[in-house]
Design goal:
Number of helices: 32
Shape: elongated
Strand order of the largest sheet: 25-24-23-26-22-27-28-29-30-31-32
Distance between the termini: 37 Å
């Protein structure tokens, strides 16, 4: 039994809309050993190791249901058991996780185990420890070899796991603030492995670290840490504080104690959590020892008068006291029969006590500090206290050292309440905790005395949220309300876009529209992260981490997230929900990879985007698989996009008051039209959108329609949508590989990243619609990790539409032979009726592009599908059509072969190009050394340059480079 694969999903995925871990578990021979066959001994041993499993209902949906299932004759398989064990281990560590499901995979004995997690590393460790625990409980005869070390101990491994989890988990104070934020529908992001958390998105964000907030004054924190200065400030205001002196040596400490008067307290100058404090010191020797203890935590030590009374923590938020708690140091109460060791064990049996912050109380420890406390009263761990005798094991009342807390908020005297509020305001803290000693908190300090020991920045919330006795207080809500007053925004609008083709273009269009509307958009795309139009991170940024990157940026107030298949499969979405989710299409691409084998499975994956949409799901009504997604969204609105104004179902949707975006014919061309709640809203003529090449690029017409529909659903004004689409005019450096046009050669070049049959077919359609005086030549390829049938489909998408075909492969072979991809596509072209003379196989991308460029003549159209975009675009723009390519454009078109299906030979030449319509033909010319190497290229006969209008692009605005692009397709 072993884990063969693991995926950690940070957000919505195929398995759940919240974080889960997926394990591929191979049971091996244990497939033949369900729990029913393993017997009651296995189940009993598991119940003893994890008693909490008794609360798991499983399919019976009631406590005990899981064990009942295990004890049935057939029982259940160990993959299902591991699911429950991984969940229960996290519960033991203090996490509230409940979800899990296990399904058999395609291979015999292999199971997909999915379970919820609260913290990534803890969730992974829970699966690994759970597997080891199950192996340890198996009979030795069937236990997998080397699965359990000889010296392995379950109790030790369990406690180490809990400590491991707590080192990485958010503390109780931070957790309470996050829960309060969630109750107020405020999103949050964890920014590091400690307690730094962002509440809210973009420019609306506030940050917390434990109970320090974005509004906490640095000066106030410094003052609170300076106990001497705090004492002086409070004394100046007439607040009750003990006399104190700051010392740096034992001798100074003793003299200070004599001056302020015994008994005294020694404590570190800048300590916290009760560390290094010694109280009720009555002799010079005790003061000297107390100094040494405090010196371990601070170079300077404070000596102050000891105040009689109970220790109280008074919590003040935004100038108002919100909770008061009486704290009692960790202790045991004697019964006259048991030793202190035994009494400690009894106290630790309290289910509310755990390791560290695992539970509301912490276990008592008989450590060196406890032994010192016992020695003061002449006791040892083996002593038997008298009945009712209270034996303290700590001098301070911190919960983290085993203390207890009793809520006294409702009974605190008004004077004491006002005193705490004044103290925190005096220091300048937005969230502060006052340590106040008083014999009776219900009486005024003015009458019975008492005093302020400290004012704490970043006070802990655990004692108030879950006191040992009394009412728990929601102290986190006032903090959240302080950071986000009622009505204050915390979220930025989020739009997520997915589909097989067109995602990048649509995302860029939408981001441009929002910028024209006055927003500061954050955009994730296949080539980087953009903040307000500037690329801040380069690379494929369509996964969940880039989404978090955008939402954490304090500048943005709008998020546009291109969401790709790979990120969804690898780690899920980066956000729990989006305002608007759009699905452009579902076409054959990446099938056969990572468990996605059919279009229906691919559709289910891309459907996640609309499943989590809250305001509107924007769907392509012309794609049947996308249209069906309307049944899986809970968004308030559904907006259909159709290029067919006669679409029957969309027409019914519109008549019912639904939202839609349709393409309608008019006297002046085609109009993008919006419908909503019975309103008919003509938006923009398609020929006025530069990215559509005067309406010829129908795929970009559809992309513009999606951008318009999503912008409308984001409540962008109509004029801003019109202005955005009319001014969306990308360059290669903004949208590389998205229908880029280069028109500085005598021939014209269309440059695109299309790498699936649908995208390639759209570009071939566009090439057919453009006015071309000469020939149409295409450079074709396909990714090596696609199925053979996908590569053939790409070739079929262009077959019969061009005069010459050059087949190449990508630089990354992806485990294929160097010429395997181009030869598969060449065979597909021949099968579609393309003659051998019209096909060239040139495997290397640079050589293939070079051959196409040298083949080009005046009036020709070259459609080049590229993989290495920057290199290939540079090769195109630097090419010298007079006969010599720029040095940076790469090698000549060497090693070209006729596409006859025969083995490649260095002596074979590029197949002859078809005659040019104007009568000038291309002539194969040797490039010098090529006479011996077989390397050849084409050089077009010199002809006068023809006007740009030859391609039918005369209506397109050009810059000084003559470059124009309209993104066409993307992964």
């Amino acid at each position: 039994m072993r884990i063969v694969d693991r995926s950690v999903y940070v957000g919505p995925s195929l398995y759940a809309h919240f974080p889960v871990i997926r394990l591929e578990l191979d049971l091996g021979a244990l497939e033949e050993w369900p729990t029913g066959r393993l017997g009651a001994g296995f189940v009993d041993a598991l119940a003893a190791a994890l008693p909490g499993l008794a609360e798991h209902g499983c399919s019976y949906r009631q406590p005990g249901g899981f064990f009942r299932r295990m004890r049935e004759d057939d029982g259940t398989w160990l993959g299902h058991v591991l699911e429950h064990v991984a969940i229960e281990l996290q519960n033991m560590a203090g996490e509230e996780v409940t979800f899990g499901k296990t399904r058999s995979a395609d291979a015999p004995g292999v199971y997909t185990v999915v379970y919820e997690y609260a913290q990534r590393d803890e969730g992974i460790a829970a699966g690994e420890l759970g597997l080891r625990l199950l192996c340890s409980l198996l009979p030795a005869a069937i236990r997998p070899p080397d699965s359990v070390p000889e010296d392995w101990s379950w109790p030790e491994a369990r406690d180490e796991f809990i400590r491991f989890a707590q080192r990485r988990a958010l503390g109780p104070s931070t957790s309470s603030l996050i829960k309060a934020a969630e109750r107020s529908d405020i999103p949050w992001l964890r920014l590091n492995d400690q307690s730094l958390v962002q509440l809210g998105h973009g420019k609306f964000q506030q940050r917390i670290q434990a109970t320090v907030t974005s509004r906490t004054s640095h000066i106030a924190v410094e003052l609170a840490s300076d106990k001497e200065e705090t004492n002086k400030i409070l004394a100046t205001l007439g607040l009750p504080v003990p006399k104190q002196e700051l010392v740096q040596s034992e001798r100074q400490a003793v003299r200070a104690a004599q001056r302020v008067g015994f008994p005294v307290v020694t404590k570190p100058y800048n300590g916290n959590h009760g560390r290094g404090i010694s109280i009720r010191l009555t002799t010079d020797e005790e003061v000297a020892q107390g100094f040494l203890v405090a010196r371990e935590h601070s170079r300077s030590v404070i000596v102050e008068t000891f105040l009689e009374g109970d220790d109280h923590r008074l919590l003040v938020v935004n100038g108002e006291l919100v909770a008061a708690t009486r704290r009692t140091p960790g202790h045991v109460v004697g019964d006259g029969t048991r030793t202190i060791v035994q009494l400690v064990d009894i106290v630790n049996q309290d289910p509310r006590r755990g390791v560290g912050h695992e539970k509301v109380l912490t276990r008592l420890e008989l450590d060196s500090q406890a032994e010192k406390m016992l020695a003061r009263v002449e006791l040892t761990a083996e002593s038997i206290p008298a009945p009712g005798q209270v034996v303290y094991l700590r001098s301070t009342a911190n919960l983290s050292t085993g203390g207890t807390a009793t809520d006294v908020t409702d009974i605190i005297h008004p004077d004491n309440r006002e005193m705490a509020e004044r103290a925190v305001r005096a220091i300048g803290l937005d969230v502060g905790g006052v340590d106040f000693l008083s014999k009776d908190i219900t009486e005024s300090y003015r009458a019975i005395g008492g005093g302020i020991c400290e004012v704490n920045a970043a006070p802990g919330f655990r004692m108030h949220v879950a006191p040992s006795e009394g009412k728990g207080r929601d102290v986190a809500a006032p903090v959240v309300n302080m950071l986000f007053p009622p009505g204050a925004p915390s979220r930025v609008p989020i739009a997520a876009i997915t589909g097989t083709n067109g995602k990048t273009t649509t995302a860029r269009m939408l981001a441009h529209v929002t910028k024209m509307a006055g927003y500061t958009p954050g955009l994730t795309t296949t080539d980087g992260v953009y903040i307000d139009g500037q690329r801040t991170v380069q690379g494929d940024m369509t996964g969940p981490m880039s989404a978090r990157m955008v939402l954490a940026d304090p500048q943005i107030d709008m998020a546009i997230l291109e969401t790709a298949r790979g990120g969804l499969l690898r780690a899920g979405m980066g956000v729990r929900e989006v305002n608007v989710g759009g699905v452009l299409n579902v076409q054959s691409d990446h099938l056969g990879l990572k468990g996605i084998h059919t279009l229906e499975q691919l559709s289910e994956l891309k459907r996640i985007v609309v499943e989590v949409a809250t305001d509107c799901a924007v769907l392509n009504a012309d794609d049947p698989l996308v249209f069906k997604m309307s049944g899986y969204t809970e968004a308030k609105n559904i907006c259909y996009v159709t290029m067919n104004p006669q679409h029957t179902l969309v027409r019914e949707h519109i008549r019912a008051g639904g939202r839609a975006c349709a393409l309608e014919a008019g006297v002046n061309g085609q109009m993008i039209t919006l419908y909503d709640r019975g309103s008919h809203i003509p938006l923009l003529w398609t020929h006025l959108i530069p990215a559509t090449l005067e309406g010829r690029a129908l795929h970009n017409v559809q992309n513009a329609m999606f951008a318009a529909a999503m912008a409308f659903s984001l409540n962008i004004k109509l004029d801003a949508i019109r202005q955005g689409l009319r001014t969306f005019d990308s360059t290669f450096y903004q949208a590389p590989g998205r229908m880029n046009v280069f028109s500085e050669h005598p021939f014209k070049v269309l440059f695109d990243y299309g790498h699936n049959a649908h995208a390639v077919g759209m570009m071939a359609d566009l090439a057919g619609r453009l006015d071309v005086a000469g020939r149409r030549i295409v450079v074709l390829a396909g990714p090596g990790d696609r199925r053979d049938e996908d590569l053939r489909a790409i070739a079929a998408a262009v077959a019969g539409r061009f005069d010459h075909y050059i087949c190449r492969r990508d630089d990354n072979l992806r485990d294929r032979a160097s010429d395997e991809v181009p030869r598969i596509q060449a065979e597909a072209l021949r099968a579609a009726g393309v003659s051998d003379a019209a096909i060239s196989v040139i495997p290397d991308e640079q050589e293939a592009i070079e051959a196409a460029l040298r083949m080009g003549q005046t009036g020709d159209l070259l459609l080049i599908f590229a993989d290495a975009l920057a290199r290939s675009w540079k090769q195109i723009t630097k090419f010298k059509s007079g006969g010599h390519a720029a040095q940076s454009s790469g090698t000549a078109a060497g090693h070209a072969t006729q596409a006859t299906g025969a083995a490649s030979s260095p002596r074979e030449t590029v197949a002859a190009a078809p005659p040019h319509p104007n009568g000038t033909g291309g002539t194969p010319v040797s490039n010098g050394a090529g006479a011996n190497t077989g390397m050849h290229h084409y050089q077009s006969a010199p002809t006068p340059a023809e006007p740009i209008a030859t391609l039918g692009l005369e209506g397109i605005i050009r810059d000084e480079r003559g470059i124009r692009m309209a993104p066409a397709s993307d992964d």
